[in-house]
Write a structure and sequence with these properties.
The complex is a heterotrimer of chains A (about 375), B (about 260) and C (about 280).
Chain A: E1 4-7, H1 9-21, E2 25-32, E3 35-40, E4 51-56, E5 59-64, H2 81-84, E6 88-97, E7 100-103, E8 112-117, H3 119-131, H4 142-150, E9 152-156, H5 167-170, E10 182-189, E11 192-199, H6 202-210, E12 215-216, H7 219-233, H8 245-250, H9 257-264, H10 270-274, E13 281-287, E14 293-300, E15 310-311, E16 314-315, H11 320-339, H12 349-352, H13 360-369
Parallel strand pairs in A: 2-8, 8-9, 9-10
Antiparallel strand pairs in A: 1-11, 1-12, 2-3, 4-5, 6-7, 6-14, 10-11, 13-14, 15-16
Helix pairs in contact in A: 9-11
Chain B: E1 5-10, H1 16-22, H2 26-34, E2 36-39, E3 52-58, H3 64-75, E4 77-83, H4 84-89, H5 101-108, E5 132-134, H6 141-153, H7 164-171, H8 176-180, H9 196-199, H10 216-225, H11 230-237, H12 245-260
Parallel strand pairs in B: 1-2, 1-3, 3-4, 4-5
Chain C: E1 16-27, E2 30-36, E3 49-54, E4 58-63, E5 74-79, H1 83-89, E6 96-103, E7 116-122, H2 126-138, E8 146-152, H3 161-169, E9 174-179, E10 189-190, E11 207-212, H4 215-229, E12 236-239, E13 255-256, E14 259-260, H5 261-264, E15 267-269, H6 270-273
Parallel strand pairs in C: 7-8, 7-11, 8-9, 9-10, 11-12
Antiparallel strand pairs in C: 1-2, 1-6, 2-5, 3-4, 3-6, 12-15, 13-14
Classes of the chains: A alpha+beta (about 375), B alpha/beta (about 260), C alpha/beta (about 280).
Chain lengths: ~375, ~260, ~280
């Protein structure tokens, strides 16, 4: 195990400063429009000190904690995918001439430090990396790969899980295991805010070693951190029974439950937009009025929109039930066939940010209770 | 090669959507280089006779004369696009569809006998075949450029039919319903405005009309959970796109409930 | 003109300009583009497709309809259905299209040497099968019987008609053709393509079928081969089609159950997708 350091809030400020000084745009949690989102931060004073988030299905409120914690909340509607696979990004542009067409130069990818990445979000990054893995050496989407490779990751372990969190069920938290450069655990020790810092990479170790005023953590402080995280694991707001889940969902494609979810589902696509792993995109084509310059813009799309499944002018998934089934079955079942793990990290965003509070954990339970197991979605199987 | 001929017609409306065309400023010159603006009284006195390749129609049908005129326009138009809430849904003036037009006429005008108006304000598609609808009150001016450009280029216009929520989330705006309990029509409203109101912490007013598969019943139930009355729901669904079917059915439903409950 | 930017930033979403050498009208709504790759050669396998980009208009997946042994130019046979295919249909010799690919799984030509080949096409579905036919003819000794069955709507909709007739003149393969609705002096078979299956000899135990056409045609054909001729389902290959934006498994559009049609298909052994056909909206 790598060296563990300890600091006060000033040490966290020096870490942010060090990352900025080494050329990173440091992105971290900030309050905007009454919610926590991610945006550029200049220092520790930009963090939502003393705030927490109350989360229920379809409901989110920020409240004062009554303490000085920097990280006493979980995740808001934003996720890191907005930086790696932006909501709208030019995927290709070029000019046509008599000898073919010429690609526009591609801008230099930004160099980010993601500050405050939660363990479930580290899992989401790993899942996205799997999606964007290239099979032939060329990056699938250059923007993703180039931005991801440059990104410095500061993880924050979760001491105060939210009402819709179920990372323990998905085995993604509340403690970061891998995929970070530096991880932070916030503990209240003898009435003071203490920050346990450890590195997860050589770069992370170098950065930590360069920051002045960090002390080596005492065994008592290390133990305090472990206690906080062990307690957090017992504070999950939700749980999801993943036992045989892929087969359960794939076998219940004709379960009438899908149509009853459709009565409630708005097909508004919020769940997919806030999901840190939902990667579906579309490409819009544009052409300048003179016909010489074309732009292909990649935009976040969703399996909840009708246009998503259009073929020959007809949507293949016309009913909302079929669209909800596609989303949930993909996330929890067919994703395993495609990428070797589920696409859900247990962050609870889809539950919180559904305007009508549809709860994926409850929907799984409903299917489980009314298990019909009479159909075969996913890997074909001749029937 | 001759440029495609463009015509712009106005029916019952505030002119705001036509003005959006003029509002594109510099781009107007670019547009004029790819289409021949043949009949657009708001922009040019020159009127060249049809037939037209592309016709933009603003406004709703509120008079017997207009109900005839739209058929003439259809006959001389190869591709007819309705623009704005009036043309696509009947507009704010469709509120009269629930009321007594004669009563309004008598109340407002000293000599109502000079008026010749239909009992209803209806969208153009109720009268003639429409090739494409561009929603909004008013339409987004860049969307208008997109529709014209796509027509000229033989391209499908990039005009979304999904919910405002998609635009909100792409923009990074947290949901106003979820994060502060502000009633919002975004989940049942078609995108296209750039999710303007929620970015100012306001709920969506539904300017772009119903999205592709609007679950208005469930959204109404969620609004009731936020403390909105049946009467409040009637008011919300009866605005610029009141006569669009999903909104109309929902407002009628809650009006009946409001009456039954004496709200 | 320089066609590529700095290689470091090239990704799989970058369209490569191919020059249109010729355009051939096949049917009233169907045409074939002959395309020249910028570096002189384009390697692919029978059954693979490319993403064809009409500059500024959009991109569509189109299978390659020429022989994989001819890499100097490729043929792509396209039906005018939407804005992009109409734009491609307006191209002239000397124009450019963008190409990405080749993508997708091929017909299993190498794995089925020594077997009878039963090639069944419906409508424009013959286009992705044609490279398989060429491969079989160019390597005729590698296969036993080669049977081509083709069905389409009317005599006016017969794709590659002249070429199909020339195949019919050969002694080393059998071809049969049918139309749903006959007109003018049609004196061939009338009815669905499955009705041709029993009319020409093949050894079901030693046959691989390659089927391409509308989904309903493929499922009915597969069922007929399995139930009527005792063919093993794993010896039947079909091709799938869905909305596709990337062709590299990162846009999510073409999912069909667990499968990405773009990377797991478009050619599938029938058992991999069979169970999904009956589930509406998969």
């Amino acid at each position: 195990m790598s060296e563990m350091y300890v600091s006060g809030q000033s040490g966290i400020g020096r870490l942010i400063q060090a990352l900025a000084e080494s050329g990173h745009a440091v992105i971290g949690p900030v309050i905007r429009n009454q919610a926590l989102v991610y945006d550029e931060i200049d220092g520790v004073e930009d963090l939502p000190k003393g705030w927490t988030d109350l989360q229920e299905p379809g409901r989110y409120r920020l409240e004062h904690r009554g303490d000085e914690k920097l990280f006493g909340y979980v995740v808001g509607p934003a996720s890191w995918k907005q930086y790696l696979s932006p909501p709208e990004a030019v995927v290709w542009a070029g000019t046509i001439g008599t000898e073919g067409f010429k690609s526009d130069p591609v801008p230099e990818p930004p160099k980010y430090a993601f500050f405050g990445v939660r363990p479930c979000e580290l899992a989401a990054l790993r899942i996205l990396d799997n999606v964007y893995t290239s099979s032939n050496g060329l990056p699938t989407v250059a923007g993703y790969t180039a931005t991801r490779e440059k990104a410095f990751i500061v993880a924050v372990n979760c001491s105060d899980p939210g009402g819709n969190c179920f990372c323990v069920s998905m085995d993604t938290g509340p403690t970061a295991k891998a995929g970070y450069d530096i991880s932070i655990t916030e503990v209240v020790h003898n009435g003071n805010m203490r920050y346990l810092l450890t590195s997860g990479s050589e770069t992370g170790a170098e950065v930590l070693a360069s920051i002045e005023g960090l002390n080596h953590a005492s065994s008592e402080e290390v133990e305090a951190g472990e206690t906080v995280l062990a307690r957090a694991a017992d504070m999950m707001g939700k749980r999801l029974d993943t036992e045989d889940l892929p087969n359960l969902l794939k076998g219940n494609a004709l379960n009438p439950r899908w149509e009853s979810i459709a009565d409630k589902c708005l097909a508004c696509a919020n769940c997919t937009m806030v999901c840190p792993t939902c990667f579906c995109n579309t490409v819009d084509d544009n052409l300048s009025l003179d016909g010489e310059h074309a732009t292909r813009t990649r935009k976040w799309d969703s399996c909840f929109t009708l246009g998503f499944s259009y073929m020959h002018g007809q949507p293949m998934r016309e009913s909302v039930g079929a669209r909800y089934r596609q989303w949930m079955t993909h996330k929890l079942a067919t994703w395993v066939d495609q990428f070797g793990e589920m696409g859900c990290v247990g962050c609870g965003r889809c539950i919180t940010w559904c305007p009508v509070g549809i709860d994926i954990t409850q929907e799984v339970e409903a299917i489980r209770r009314g298990d019909l197991r009479d159909t075969h979605i996913g890997v074909g199987g001749y029937v | 090669m001759a440029l495609p001929k463009l015509a712009v017609y106005k029916f019952a409306s505030c002119d705001g959507c036509q003005l959006s065309i003029l509002d594109v400023e510099d781009l107007l010159l670019d547009i004029a280089s790819v289409v021949h603006i043949a009949n657009f009284p708001e922009a040019s006195r020159e009127v060249i006779e049809g037939p037209y390749d592309l016709t933009l129609v603003e406004g709703s049908i509120t008079t017997a004369h207009d109900a005839e005129r739209i058929h003439e326009i259809r006959r001389e138009s190869k591709f007819l696009v309705t623009i704005g809430a009036c043309a696509t849904a009947g507009g704010i003036q469709a509120l009269k569809n629930w009321k007594d037009t004669d009563l309004f006429a008598r109340t407002v005008y000293a000599h109502p006998e000079y008026l010749d108006t239909l009992e209803t304000s209806t969208p153009v598609k109720n009268h003639v075949e429409v090739n494409f609808e561009l929603r909004g009150c008013p339409v987004d001016k860049m969307a208008l450029v997109e529709v014209v450009a796509a027509f000229v280029q033989g391209r499908r216009p990039n005009i979304p039919e999904y919910s405002v929520c998609v635009e909100c989330k792409r923009k990074g705006t947290p949901c106003v319903m979820v994060s502060h309990g502000t009633p919002c029509l975004g989940p049942v409203t078609q995108a296209g405005c750039g999710a303007l109101c929620p970015s100012y912490n306001r709920g969506c007013y539904g300017c772009f009309g119903p999205m592709e598969s609007p679950n208005t019943d469930m959204l109404a139930a969620a609004w009731q959970g936020l403390g909105v009355s049946h009467r409040g729901l009637v008011d919300a669904f009866r605005s610029f796109n009141a006569y669009a079917e999903p909104f109309r059915i929902t407002s009628d439903h809650h009006e009946a409930l409001a009456v039954a409950k004496g709200e | 003109m320089e066609t590529l930017t700095d290689p470091a930033v090239i990704d799989q979403m970058t369209p490569i300009p191919f020059r249109v050498r010729s355009v051939r009208e096949e049917l009233s709504h169907t045409f074939t583009l002959e395309l020249e790759p910028p570096d002189g050669a384009f390697e692919f396998l029978p059954g693979q497709f490319t993403m064809v980009y009409a500059f500024g208009i959009g991109e569509v997946p189109i299978s390659i309809s020429s022989s994989a042994s001819q890499t100097g130019t490729i043929l792509q046979t396209i039906r005018r259905t939407g804005a992009v295919t109409h734009a491609l249909g307006r191209l002239k010799s000397g124009d450019y299209v963008g190409i990405r690919g080749p993508y997708g799984t091929p017909w299993p030509m190498d794995d089925i040497e020594g077997r009878d080949l039963l090639i069944i096409g419906g409508g424009i579905g013959l286009a992705p099968l044609r490279p398989a036919v060429y491969h079989a003819l160019e390597n005729r000794d590698d296969y036993e019987r080669v049977v081509i069955l083709y069905g389409t709507r009317t005599p006016d909709d017969i794709l590659f008609e002249k070429e199909q007739r020339s195949w019919g003149d050969r002694t080393d393969l059998s071809t049969l053709m049918t139309v749903d609705a006959a007109d003018r002096g049609w004196n061939g078979a009338v009815g669905v393509v499955t009705r041709l299956i029993g009319r020409v000899g093949f050894d079901p135990a030693n046959t691989t079928a390659m089927v391409c056409g509308p989904e309903i045609m493929m499922t009915v054909t597969a069922e007929r081969l399995i139930e009527g001729h005792s063919m093993a389902p794993e010896n039947i290959y079909v091709t799938m089609e869905r909305n596709m934006k990337c062709a590299i498994g990162v846009c999510g559009h073409c999912q069909f159950g667990s499968k990405f049609i773009c990377t797991d298909g478009a050619v599938f052994p029938f058992p991999e997708v069979a169970g999904l056909f009956d589930i509406k909206g998969v």
